[in-house]
Amino acid sequence: MKDNFKHLASKYLEQQSLDEQQLSELENLFDCSQVEKKPEHSKSSKMAKQNVKEERPVFEKIDRANKHGTADSNSNSHTTPLVLSRSLFLGLAASCLVVFILSFVLVKKNYHDIDEPKSNNPSLVWLIADEVAKNHIKMKPLEIETKSLDSLRRYFTELDFSVTYSKTFDESQSSSKMLGARYCSIQGVTAAQLRYENANGRRISLYEVPYDSERYGLIPQIERGESPLELFVRGLQVSVWVESGLLMVTANEIPNG
Amino acid sequence: MTFERKQLQGLYRYCYSLTRDANSAADLLQTSLVKWIDSGKFSKHQPAYVRKIIRNQFIDDCRRNKKVEFETIDAHATALVDESSLEDMKINSELVEIIFAKLNAAEGEIIYLWAVEGYTAREISEELGQPRGTVLSRLHRVKQKITALIEAGEELERAKS
User: Fold this and answer.
1) Distance (Å, whole) CA B97 – CA A36
2) HSE on the CB side for B111, CA within 13 Å?
3) How would residue A158 be classed by pLDDT, with cut points 50, 70 and 90?
4) What is the pLDDT of residues B20-30, one digit of tens each?
5) Rounded CA gap, A50 and A63, in Å?
C-alpha cells in the first residue's frame, strides 16, 4: 500500500518508543536531581544556611573595614570613594577571593557532615555506573589470567594502590571464582578490573580505584555499616560502595526471576 | 524540572533518528539527559536545547568510535528546490524501514525534524546551524536513496515475473 513518504516516515519514527522501565529510569534521573536541590524546609538546608550565615559576617567585616578605610582615605585625600589605589584594589580583591574560597570549603565540609543521602551527586554515580556497565559489556580480553591476588598485585605495577579482596563482594558472590584482571579507568583515573565467573558461568566485573570523595561524590562506606548503592544500567545490575579506602563497583547480569 | 513522557519519547525518537538503533538511542538519551541535569541549565527546559546536547554527544561518540556520520555537503551539491517534492513522493509502506537503514545520521535527523516535528527546511537550518541549501541537499540525497530503492524493488519484481 502506497502512502506519502512524510506520513510514513513520521509513523515509522513514532513507532520507536521507550518502554515503561526505560521511561521510569529516565524519570528517576530527574527525581534524583531534585533530591540534590534540598527543599527549603529540610533540616539539612537550614543547617547549611546557618553555616553560610556564620561565614557571611566575615565578608561583611571586610567590607565594612574597606569602606571605613576608603572613607578615611577620602577625608584625607579629597579622592572620591570610588577611586582606589591599584595596590589597595588588588589587595581587597585577593582578600575577598581567599575568604570566599575558605567559606565555600567550610560550608561544603559542614554540609557533607550532615546525615544526608549517601551520594550528594546522583548523576555522578550514574556516570560511574554507566561507564562500568559499558566496560563490562565490552568484555575486553584479560591482561592477566590468575586466581591469585598476589599475582595481581605483582602485575599491577602502574596502579597507585594495592588491589584487595572485598569482603562485601565475597559475601554476595561467594561461589564466584576469579578469572583474572586488566587495567581500566573510572572517570579518568587508572583502575583495576577484576573478572570473576559465578556458578552459572556468568561473568562479574569488580572495579577498584582509590576513593576520592571530591571526584566521586559521597558513596556508602562499608566500614560505617552502610550498604552499597544498587543501580540498573544498560541491562546490568551495578553496585557501588567504598571499602578499605577503595571505590568498588561491580557489574553483572540481572539474575532471572 | 522534568520532561513529560511525551517529550521524553520525542527526544528518544530524535536519538533513534541519529543512531537508527534502539539500544544506542536509549543510551544516547540517558547520557545526554545526565549532561543536561549536570549543566544546571534548567531554564533551558526545551526539547530543542536538549536535542543540541544529544547531537553533540552523538558527534563525540562517533569521533571516539572513528565513525563518519556527518559528511560535509559541497556548496554546489544538487539540492531540492524545496521540501514539497520529497513530501509528495509515494512509496510502499514496507520500504520505510529499509529507507531508514540506508540513511546516515545527518539525513536521519533532518527527516525526524521534517516529518515528526513538522519543521520547514528553513526551521531545520536554524536549529542545526546549517545553511538552508545544505538541508535541501541532504533531503535531495534522501530522495535519491528512496528512488534507487524503488527502482531496485521494481527491477526485482520484473526479474521474478
Assistant:
1) 42
2) 36
3) confident
4) 888 889 999 99
5) 20
Residue A32 pLDDT level (bands cut at 50, 70, 90):
low
Helix axes B47-64, B5-19, angle to 10 degrees: 30
pLDDT tens track for B7-55: 999 999 999 999 988 888 999 999 999 888 887 776 656 888 899 999 9
Is B26–A22 a contact, with Cβ atoms under 8 angstroms apart? yes
Interchain contact B147–A (C-beta under 8 A): no
Q: Do A3 and B2 touch (CB under 8 A)?
A: no
Give how far B29 is from chain A: nearest CA, Å. Answer: 9
Q: Residue A26 is nearest to which of B33, B99, B112, comparing CB atoms? A: B33
Best B91, B103, B110, B117 residue to mutate vs chain A (most A CBs within 10 Å) = B91
Q: Do B96 and A8 touch (CB under 8 A)?
A: yes
Q: A15 and chain B: CB distance < 8 Å anywhere?
A: no
Give the CB-side neighbour count of residue B27, counting CA atoms within 13 A: 18
Mutation site for B-interface testing, chosen from A4, A6, A137 by largest number of B Cβ within 10 Å? A6
Are the C-beta atoms of A2 and B96 separated by less than 8 Å? no
Which neighbouring-strand residues pair with A231?
A238
DSSP calls for A108-148: HHHHHHS---S-S-HHHHHHHHHHHHHHHHHTPPPSEE-S-
- The C-alpha angle A94, A107, A239, rounded to 5 degrees, equals 125
Neighbours of B65 (CB within 10 A): 8
ipTM score above 0.85: yes
